[in-house]
Amino acid sequence: MDMTQVNVPAETQTATLHLPGQPPFDMAVTVGTENEHAFDVTQLRSNTGYITLDNGYGNTGSCTSAITYIDGDKGILRYRGYPIEQLAVNSSFVEVAWLLIYGELPTPQQLRRFRQLLTEHEMLHEGLRHHFEGFPPSAHPMAMLSAMINASSCYHPELIENDDEENFMASAAKLMSKVRTIAAFSFKKSLGQPIVYPHPEKSYCRNFLHMMFSIPYAPYEPSPEVLGAFMKFLILHADHEQNCSTSTVRMVCSSGANLFASVAAGVCALWGPLHGGANQSAIEMLQKIYASGESVKTIVEQVKEKKFRLMGFGHRVYKSYDPRAIILKQALQDLLKRTGQEDPLMDIAMELEEVALTDDYFISRSLYPNVDFYSGLILRNIGIPVNMFTVMFAIGRIPGWIAHWYEQRRSGGRIFRPRQVYTGATERNYLSIEERNGCANDLGCDAAYLRGI
Ligand SMILES: CC(C)(COP(=O)(O)OP(=O)(O)OC[C@H]1O[C@@H](n2cnc3c(N)ncnc32)[C@H](O)[C@@H]1OP(=O)(O)O)[C@@H](O)C(=O)NCCC(=O)NCCS
What we know:
Blueprint: E1 5-7, E2 14-18, E3 25-31, E4 37-39, H1 44-48, E5 68-71, E6 76-79, E7 82-83, H2 84-90, H3 93-102, H4 108-120, H5 126-131, H6 141-154, H7 157-161, H8 165-191, H9 204-213, H10 224-236, H11 244-254, H12 259-271, H13 278-292, H14 296-304, H15 323-339, H16 344-357, H17 360-364, H18 371-381, H19 389-411, H20 447-450
Antiparallel strand pairs: 1-2, 2-3, 3-4, 5-6, 6-7
Helix pairs in contact: 2-10, 3-19, 4-8, 6-8, 6-12, 8-9, 8-19, 10-15, 10-18, 10-19, 11-12, 11-19, 12-19, 13-16, 13-18, 15-18
The structure holds coenzyme A.
């Protein structure tokens, strides 16, 4: 008999939980500005002894946040209220970063000051530069990125000891600027090429591409098409509310950890193939399909038999087309058209999308292309190697992580500390090594040796 009920009358701001053998328990209802409803379970355990169980946190609000709004059913994504479609066309990455961190589009003076700070902090301390020598040539750039972000905080102890407004802005600019330099240096290191230093007169995106692709005596200058596509890529990755890496940043921040340590943890969370690593996995999947010569229909059948997942498809939140994928697909088509480049992987991707979107397996599970399906193709076509894809995602996500760290820090919230439902052994008494199974076997039982005495 199910006696557990939760009543949330629409007209009140309280939800009442009826648990077996307990008086009704009232919970305050929080309503977001987009009419999202949540009931507050903060006092649930202390009042009823119950906790909520939510595998994968798909139904748990870990915080309130004013940064990014997503409606996954309608395919809506807005930063601070501004639709992503408008920002992708009209804004720059640096402007979007300011918007995410501070909540408003910057005034011309604020934008100028922020750009100036990004330029001032673009160099790495020479001591830090030597850290690159410690990595083997095969090191994954995500491992290097996380380690170097953490290491860079050692060179700026003043920033991590004090996070007043002025210091926070300097930390934010330092992090955003240095991450770009670290990423480009790690790429050069992997190629065995000399490091190219940042150029103070180049804008944020142009400067990054310069550090990536210039070689001594052969400066690289991106075409407007390449620059535009790259800028869109960064803007579209700048934030995505409480995903795995951002929640990680907020969780680490909740312990009082500094911005650099929290973001270094976010980089590690992003690395996984179910999260930021999916852009690399998606391209590798397309490359495999291309090399195998198998038809897209055969591939889709294998996916339906659950032999593997279609990387770049599906999303925890979007149950319609990911709006970022729409913009990136268009940007990619424009890039290929204007540069006259051809990419056989693009043809496979489009065919996969067509077959999948008309197949009941994908329709019934609301599986659509996500941001990673086309983003890897953009990166590939501007010359970024596959093992750097997730690093590119991280560069884009830095402003979002900074914004969430700042919001979390200023919220004065408690340390994040989820509960669990324990399913292990109940209390039992310790058995000496002689009493355990297997002691009477041929090997004998030298208890003193096994105890390490
Ligand atoms: C993003 C992702 C992790 C979301 O996972 P989730 O919300 O936990 O969804 P689930 O893993 O519960 O999947 C639900 C169903 O869809 C299927 N499914 C989900 N993503 C799929 C994919 N990419 N290809 C094939 N089937 C998929 C699952 O097998 C499951 O099927 P079932 O109901 O028959 O068991 C998942 O869709 C995925 O692994 N995608 C590929 C990786 C990727 O592109 N990640 C980048 C996200 S931006």
